[in-house]
Design a protein that fits this description.
The complex is a heterodimer of chains A (about 220) and B (about 230). Chain A is an alpha/beta fold and about 220 residues long. Chain A contains seven helices and ten strands. Chain B has one domain. By secondary structure, chain B is mainly alpha-helical. Classes of the chains: A alpha/beta (about 220), B mainly alpha (about 230).
């Protein structure tokens, strides 16, 4: 898809929290094969922006378009292409890693060729499939949530602080996965307080509350 | 590409919620114990006289069932909301109302059905005759799903609030009252040997109405609550 409307278009949105303006007239476009790193201080509105882009929250003004259509209108279409992982991992502590991912798979669908066991061994949880997630460490819980990235067929990934409580090996593994995803024409929006070093694709940076994208490479 | 079917997601969600309830089975006991305790305390508190208990039985059992159902609502969306799974449900490409219905069904299976099964025992405690007990079970079968469905709307609306409990009862109780009136009345009438078709039809109509509308309303309310 090379037409002008391909990808995610954030159209002059603004957002307030309480009486405070977080950002206003934010306008940018994210195309296949592009990475957007959202940066800014604590409380600058990174999570709010990501939730608006995922359609979980409404902006005060403006709109978000997917392939040229409002995400709220062409909703089912957008949601099929979206994978959002927020602060809260969306993992049930009473269920095992296997059961959690089975549920995620039936909710969001998956690539036919990738099995859950495969995804779990890729995130280094081989042998932990049948342990309730409540008994795993914080980093391991995070890995269970991130195993969804190996299953998903979504092209637009919106990840809020995916590196939280991960070790160096896991971060390296994720970055390799991100590079593959971008090379395959995927899109990635990511916030992180840790350094993100990606090789692939066209990378942009947005430092809130500024409203202009800065090219990284 | 392996497109997920909505029906498969619906079934998977019911199964997941049943599994979660099984692993939390102690929490499920609370509303049930409440139901049993309230009813068994009546003969002690009021009078063990047979005729009096018999007259009170339909109302007492139904009020206790209604309050037990309301107590159990708390578990419906709360934990999903807190750990972020609710967001993931709302972001799935399937109809949100369908997924909400799945959650309500599994909630009813673990809270409503035990109430229906316990009711005959409590009916015996209150000297209810056999025809009264069978009508009681029938009204509970029609009525408890309504309580879960309508309660889900209230729960979804008050989810993001810190002290939603008070507001929840204010929102939901007025909607529960028709169910209470018609059900208790039907049980009363059957014990007096009267026709109860009218009340049952009305309960049936309420059930159909709430099955069709409540999931839609609750899904919309959840969307607002997670913002």
């Amino acid at each position: 898809m090379t037409d002008a409307s391909a990808g995610l278009h954030v159209k002059s949105i603004s957002c307030t929290r309480g009486y405070r303006d977080l950002f206003s007239a934010l306008d940018f476009q994210l195309r296949p094969g592009q990475v957007l790193r959202v940066e800014g201080k604590n409380g600058s509105g990174k999570t709010s922006l990501l939730r608006i882009m995922a359609g979980l929250a409404q902006p005060l003004e403006g709109e978000v378009l997917w392939q040229g259509q409002k995400i709220s209108h062409a909703e089912s279409n957008y949601l099929e292409h979206l994978l959002f992982l927020g602060h809260r991992a969306g993992i049930k502590y009473e269920l095992t890693a296997m059961e959690n991912l089975c549920m995620a798979k039936s909710l969001h669908g998956s690539k036919a060729d990738n099995g859950i066991e495969d995804a779990l061994s890729k995130v280094g949880l081989f042998g932990f499939e049948d342990i309730p997630c409540g008994q795993l460490s914080a980093g391991q819980k995070r890995r269970v949530a991130l195993a969804q990235l190996f299953l998903t067929r979504a092209s637009c990934w919106i990840l809020d602080e995916p590196y939280t409580s991960l070790d160096v090996v896991a971060v390296a593994m994720l970055e390799k996965l991100f590079d593959e995803h971008i090379d395959n024409g995927g899109m990635l929006v990511i916030t992180s307080h840790q350094p993100v070093t990606l090789q692939a694709g066209e990378q942009h940076r947005l430092v809130l509350p500024k409203t202009q994208l800065e090219p990284l490479i | 590409m392996n497109a997920p079917s909505s029906f498969a997601a619906f079934i998977a969600l019911i199964k997941r919620d049943l599994k979660l309830s099984y692993r939390h089975r102690n929490e499920l006991l609370n509303p049930l114990l409440f139901f049993v305790i309230v009813v068994t305390l009546f003969p002690l508190g009021v009078s063990p006289e047979k005729n009096l208990l018999q007259t009170m039985a339909p109302g007492v059992i139904w009020v206790a069932a209604l309050l037990a159902a309301m107590l159990s609502l708390d578990t419906l969306f709360k934990s999903d909301y807190e750990d972020g799974t609710l967001e993931q449900l709302m972001l799935s490409p399937h109809s949100n109302a369908l997924l909400v219905l799945a959650k309500i069904i599994s909630h009813w299976l673990v809270t409503g059905v035990p109430i229906i099964l316990l009711a005959p025992l409590l009916g015996l405690f209150m000297f209810m005759p056999a025809e009264g007990i069978s009508t009681l079970m029938l009204t509970l079968l029609l009525g408890t799903p309504i309580l879960s469905l309508v309660g889900a709307i209230g729960m979804a609306l008050t989810l993001g609030l810190n002290r939603g409990g008070m507001l929840l009862s204010l929102l939901v109780l007025p909607l529960y009252i028709p169910v209470l009136i018609f059900s208790a009345n039907a049980v009363d009438a059957s014990m007096a040997g009267l026709e109860i078709k009218g009340q049952l039809y009305f309960l049936g109509a309420l059930l159909v109405l709430s099955i069709t509308l409540a999931p839609l309303a609750a899904a919309t309310a959840l969307k607002i609550s997670i913002e």
